[in-house]
């Protein structure tokens, strides 16, 4: 290596520079050769798809101090900084799971910490790249001998955050970086490192520690103190800590100013030791859900406090009045707790306050201008409690100009000061009986808003002359009537579900606009819209979600609708459409949810083209579809919900259902998110989903269901059905099936509901059925089953209604015992319909956000959610966490 060309070049440059030294201030000391070799070595392990490091080569014209991302000391020529974060690209509309941050241009491969041999390196930032691993073993775990010889590391700043695939299983090497002041390993997997605190608390100069979203589990709940001596910022948000708030945190000998423990599973009360940290400016405990007890009075003594976020917890009792003493407060967030009592007027004195969020509590009493009197810097304000009375002076002009506000349960009149808010961009008013009159004035005002959500109010005007101009307009569950409004090209999401709108779709769809429309989601379900689908869909190619369910629409699907090639979800259910639809799937190659249920569509489904379709839910119940169920349907490998009930289908159940791999567990790509499909639209998320009752399952609406009931399906049940081990619901009732239940039914361990009633099935009930431990609904009635019902807690927990109409069946819970002495069973045949469990037509305007609503216990909350890039990875890792994250972000725009 000694006589390498780089050496020669280095000497030449150095000579050249020395000669010119006196003449030119422009001339810099060339980079140190040792440093250059370290950099080139590092580059060997890196995969660099977009040539970010293309300047890193010895034969470049550039000195290594001028390579991309490098900075040197201009006197010694030693490398001091390496600054190579990556910026991910985002399309404006994408399915969150399918299209993660596009990091294809970022650095990947191995990130070798041999870089720390750069003796004068003080700053290292590789954040948000796509590295797959970190190599740190060369550092040596005990003596740090991998570091620069002689003296300890000069590294002060280390940021490797959001390289989501990196896993670090021990952090002992960190303690070698004794000059470290800033450490960010956010988004890196650290769940295997159980002694993280040991390593990081040894760093004597550490000012900021960011270990958010690392899957950390151990917070050392019983440790009395930690050895941090300089720490000011501690970010441990979005980890897996489960305990009370740990003692050591409030017993630090340093002046900590920022603590973020949001989105963990901390529980219990706020400890009085919190008072020890008088230096605290920012205390964030949001979305732990189980922090509880009163908000203590003494919080009013933390005089430096600027930011207090206790949102999404279970705090109860009143808001302490002496919070009004915290004159430095900028943000006070108590959103979604169980706080009661009055809205203290003392808060109205916090003249620095910019953010005040009190919505989703149980406050009582009166709110008036006195509560907001001196809040001249207020920008975001939210308040929503069922028993709170709004009593604002109509003449009051507030000292603030809000950017976002959210009011709930307003009765009487809307506070007139709202209309003085000319900077307002985001407005939610929900669950309110207040009059929005005069509506002209209100719609005029709304034109300035980027986002509004006016859900579950009593707005009752005629919409036919209204022009909607906001990006996101939620007007569901009001009393709106008349024809459809017109849209400006600015509208991305429109929801008018559950109103009394009537007339045709054409005013909205066929009205010519100067510019191209940007509508992504159109929800007009549950109105009285009538007429045929107009042939104007070619102007709306940006649509990915269309829901016209529950209207009086009729006719065939027009040709222009097939131009909606971006469609992910189409609901035409509960209307009076008719005709054949064979090419629908073929034209909607991206479709994930198709709901045609409860119409008069007809034709043989064997004519449909199924190949290459990724559809997850096919809901076609209650139509006139006929013919056999074609074996090609088994090519739908992503299918999770197949509902063909109540049609005119005949022939056997195809014997290839096991090819629908999404219904078979242990498949390589188990889709964690099921049929809840989050779509990001300009950084807001809304969720596509089904209209189903079955979502009581708190965190998993991973619905796996097959319903072929009420057809003319014949022959035996193919064994392949019983290979669908993820199946939660199977309904084959009201057909003409024969044969027996195979013992393989015991494979369907996830089964919660099975209905085989009203067929011609026979034989004994297999013993294996008694092992289905989640079974909550069982209907075997009206068949020819015989013999004894297998014993075991499971099958006896149902009533005799599950078994009646099988004269030869005996044993508990039937009263007929299995000897030949017949007891007379007088039970009358049941009413026809025994299946009410997985009917997919149950309607709700909130269904798009239903999963979110359940996840955080806020059913009424909006379906649109703000989403930011930094939270993306949480999505990939934790379903629940994801929804928490995005719902918080959404609320943060109010
Ligand atoms: C070295 O860099 C510093 C900061 O960039 C600058 O202020 C200083 O003038 C430079 N010195 C020389 C000799 O160029
Ligand atoms: C190591 O640091 C000490 C003081 O901290 C200094 O005197 C010495 O010169 C340094 N040695 C090297 C090789 O940098
Ligand atoms: C704190 O430092 C002391 C002495 O160096 C050590 O014994 C103890 O284990 C350290 N505690 C933690 C939590 O690192
Ligand atoms: C706080 O730390 C000190 C040591 O610095 C320890 O003696 C004391 O017990 C700790 N206090 C609590 C409440 O744990
Ligand atoms: C704090 O607030 C309470 C109640 O609002 C008040 O009585 C008390 O004087 C205040 N203390 C200080 C130091 O301002
Ligand atoms: C709608 O608002 C009323 C109050 O006006 C409330 O009682 C009801 O629970 C709300 N409905 C939903 C679904 O949130
Ligand atoms: C609505 O705005 C238009 C134009 O800005 C204005 O002419 C009209 O008077 C306004 N209507 C009301 C009721 O404020
Ligand atoms: C769309 O919004 C922009 C500002 O966001 C506004 O200037 C423009 O007038 C709007 N377009 C229409 C047609 O209203
Ligand atoms: C089912 O999958 C197997 C291979 O996994 C394939 O050979 C067969 O053709 C498939 N059947 C159908 C009807 O798709």
Automatic annotation (TrEMBL):
Bilayer topology annotation: Single-pass type I membrane protein
Gene Ontology cellular component annotations, sorted alphabetically: plasma membrane
Localization: Cell membrane
Bilayer-crossing regions: 846-867
Predominant location: membrane
Keywords from the UniProt entry: Cell membrane, Glycoprotein, Leucine-rich repeat, Membrane, Receptor, Repeat, Signal, Transmembrane, Transmembrane helix
Protein's UniProt keywords contain Flavoprotein: no
InterPro entries (alphabetical): Leu-rich_rpt, Leu-rich_rpt_typical-subtyp, LRR_dom_sf, LRR_N_plant-typ, RLP23-like
Gene3D superfamilies in the cross-refs: Ribonuclease Inhibitor (3.80.10.10)
Leucine-rich repeat-containing N-terminal plant-type domain span: 34-73
GO-annotated biological processes: post-embryonic development
Signal sequence annotation: 1-27
SMART domains in UniProt: LRR_TYP
Origin superkingdom: Eukaryota
Family, similarity comment: Belongs to the RLP family.
The name this protein goes by in its record: Leucine-rich repeat-containing N-terminal plant-type domain-containing protein
Organism, scientific name: Clitoria ternatea (Butterfly pea)
